[in-house]
Amino acid sequence: MTNAPATPSPEAILLVGGKGTRLRPMTVHTPKPMVPAAGVPFLTHQLARARAAGVEHIVLATSYLAEVFEPYFGDGSSLGLHLEYVTEEEPLGTGGAIRNVASRLRSGPDDPVLIFNGDILTGLDIRALVDNHRTTGADVSLHLTRVPDPRAYGLVPTDELGRVTAFLEKPQTPEEIVTDQINAGAYVFNRSVIDSIPADRPVSVERETFPGLLAEGVHLQGMVDSTYWLDLGTPQAFVRGSADLVLGRAPSPAVPGRCGDRLVLDSASVALDAKLTGGTVIGRQARVGAGARIDGSTVLEGAIVEEGAQVRDSLVGAGARIGARTVLQGAVVGDGALVGPDNELRDGVRVWCGADIPAGAVRFSSDQ
């Protein structure tokens, strides 16, 4: 009895070209996929999960601050991967970015190619998505997830066999909510479909490619996987995603330490009576002073949180300084910013990179 030949591993495209405008000031100096989550650039978690699912070759579609990716990841060998980089000279949209890297793919016309958005944290079973794509004979497969309130998303209804029947814009009325299934940002394309996307012009895969393929009768399959899923597009979501990685709620083999209430990286200094909870991350060479309380937050490399400060659900940028007794609640402090003692910043406040807020200048503010 002879063994059947092993199914070749799919290759993947990672879309990491976005400007991360909604995440500013976190993305002023750093592209969104390179912002640290649970102690390493967020992209590291995506690459590690793809490798764990058997992917070996990944092409990164870069654009904004493209020059920072390759110096960090190199050829990918440290992660057991072969990485290539393609930079868009002009923004091409999601579909255009996929088409722009097609020449780097090795797949044949009928082979599956995984595609991931660079701002989604998910527990998706990647192997199951590829297997489902193959067994259903689909041309394109989409990871779908169910959300309690789908009004902020485009809806993707499917028939009883999981075949996609429509792509619906964000519903405006209760009657338009025909499903709770949404596009979760991970796909499998047959290589021939990628080659059919128009080249050298902007194309939206969500607004142009998918509806166009459906209208042509192409087989688009949906696979619902409602494990952990989070769009990291806002600072609050990004901070929550980092905390969930540390807590073990979101799976990743790339978390540099054991899961738990806190992750303190090498060379960080934390006072003995400081309290770190809720998946808090303290970056390298950061310092946390006596009596400080930090919950569900990220303190990046070289930042200082002085004595008695309280930081909850917030991000403190690299080299920033939070003064004594200052309170941050749902705030973002940009790289190198100085927030003096006895301030109170809440409810989505964003402090720009390099800003200087004097002692006691802000007792309460909001982003409204």
TrEMBL record:
CDD domains tied to this protein: NTP_transferase
Entry's InterPro entries? Answer: GMPPB_C (IPR056729), Mannose-1P_guanyltransferase (IPR050486), NTP_transferase_dom (IPR005835), Nucleotide-diphossugar_trans (IPR029044)
Nucleotidyl transferase domain ranges (all copies): 12-244
Pfam families registered for this protein in UniProt: GMPPB_C (PF25087), NTP_transferase (PF00483)
Superkingdom to which the source organism belongs:
Bacteria
- Where would I find the Mannose-1-phosphate guanyltransferase C-terminal domain in this sequence? 261-339
The Swiss-Prot or TrEMBL record describes its family as follows: Belongs to the transferase hexapeptide repeat family.
Q: What is this protein called?
A: NDP-sugar synthase
Q: Which organism is it from?
A: Streptomyces javensis
